[in-house]
């Protein structure tokens, strides 16, 4: 249970001012090292993906198929987490590089980037953990907090969560379509039809690349097309599972808080920063973990400063934690194992009506 100090109006103003100043100092310091870093990340993504695909052409021979699949999965994970997600937040718009522009970057995932920019960048980051406003709280199928009203289908949420984890790239894409509102008659199907066409086009491109073009190329080269197809399938599955773990550990741990819509009434900058701090969870680990999570292991810093380059979060975290401590606020951080275990506990406990609010 969180034990945060209640801040007065003057304390909230000072709290917000300190975090604003930290953000401005970081913005003023951005430069060549940040640009070099993201270009190296992009180069690493390409190297991992292409080397993985080449190795898959060797067929089922265990070392090459396994290594090829893992390299392809690694490339897809880094592209998804450290490159695509962060670029689409506009973290590198200051470089004026069209290939790294937040508004036009298209990532290697089933969901169109424009869908993510709306549901994640706008809705989630504006209404972080506000019940009824932030659709990421349970994604409409999972009850993770006692404040969420219980519904009968939550009894089976361990199953829904398992399916969501395996198919995560599709789950976050479908979220934007709001098919639940269509089913309830709150949204006309004609309004969704254009979005379905966009989704279908992106899906065909992704499936065509991973499950048609490269297997056909294997056939033309006399390689084992089935091994290539299986490698692509497993790589996408590993990326889905990892993304699910990182996102759920960043938002739904035992110490994470949710808020009633009334929290938005008259919300000041200080209030907004406080909501981001209380609704987020960090993961402790080394540099490799931070890169593989797209630095979302520093989810607190990401929610506070979504448009700052994520490579800066590790250094920002020390200052953010010091500020939080000075103002009597819990800085929610733990190991991956501990945070994930607390998420799994929430999924199991809050499936039952006996834990209703």
From TrEMBL:
Which InterPro entries would you find in this protein's record?
FA_desaturase_dom, Fatty_acid_desaturase
Give yes or no: UniProt keyword Electron transport: no
Source species: Pseudomonas cuatrocienegasensis
Q: Which Pfam families match?
A: FA_desaturase (PF00487)
Keywords from UniProt, A to Z, are: Membrane, Transmembrane, Transmembrane helix
Identification of the protein by name: Linoleoyl-CoA desaturase
List the lineage, top down: Bacteria, Pseudomonadati, Pseudomonadota, Gammaproteobacteria, Pseudomonadales
The residue ranges of the Fatty acid desaturase domain are 64-333
Say yes or no: keyword Membrane present: yes
Q: Which domain of life is it from?
A: Bacteria
Q: What are the transmembrane regions?
A: 212-235
């Amino acid at each position: 249970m969180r034990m945060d100090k209640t801040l007065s109006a003057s304390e909230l103003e000072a709290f917000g001012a300190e975090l604003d100043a930290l953000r401005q100092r970081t913005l003023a310091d951005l430069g060549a090292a940040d640009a070099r870093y993201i270009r190296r990340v992009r180069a690493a993504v390409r190297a991992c993906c292409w080397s993985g695909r080449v190795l898959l052409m060797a067929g089922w021979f265990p070392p090459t198929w396994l290594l090829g699949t893992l390299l392809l999965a690694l490339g897809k994970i880094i592209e998804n987490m450290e490159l695509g997600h962060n670029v689409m937040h506009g973290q590198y718009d200051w470089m004026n590089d069209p290939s790294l522009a937040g508004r036009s970057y298209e990532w290697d995932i089933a969901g169109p980037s424009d869908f993510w920019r709306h549901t994640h960048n706008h809705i989630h980051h504006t209404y972080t953990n506000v019940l009824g406003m932030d659709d990421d709280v349970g994604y409409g199928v999972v009850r993770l907090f006692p404040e969420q009203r219980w519904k009968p289908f939550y009894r089976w949420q361990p199953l829904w969560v398992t399916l969501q984890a395996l198919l995560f790239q599709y789950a976050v894409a479908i979220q934007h379509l709001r098919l639940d509102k269509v089913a309830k008659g709150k949204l006309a199907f004609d309004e969704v039809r254009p979005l379905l066409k966009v989704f279908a086009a992106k899906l065909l491109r992704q499936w065509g690349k991973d499950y048609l073009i490269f297997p056909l190329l294997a056939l033309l080269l006399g390689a084992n097309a089935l091994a290539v197809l299986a490698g692509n399938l497993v790589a996408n599955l590993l990326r889905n599972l990892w993304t699910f773990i990182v996102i759920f550990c960043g938002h739904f741990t035992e110490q994470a808080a949710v808020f009633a819509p009334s929290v938005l009434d008259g919300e000041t900058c200080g209030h907004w920063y406080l909501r981001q701090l209380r609704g987020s969870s960090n993961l402790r680990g080394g540099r490799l973990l931070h890169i593989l999570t797209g630095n979302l292991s520093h989810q607190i810093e990401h929610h506070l400063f979504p448009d700052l380059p994520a490579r800066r979060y590790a250094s920002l975290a020390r200052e953010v934690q010091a500020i939080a401590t000075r103002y009597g606020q819990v800085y929610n951080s733990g190991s991956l194992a501990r945070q994930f275990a607390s998420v799994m506990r929430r999924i199991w406990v809050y499936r039952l009506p006996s834990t209703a609010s």
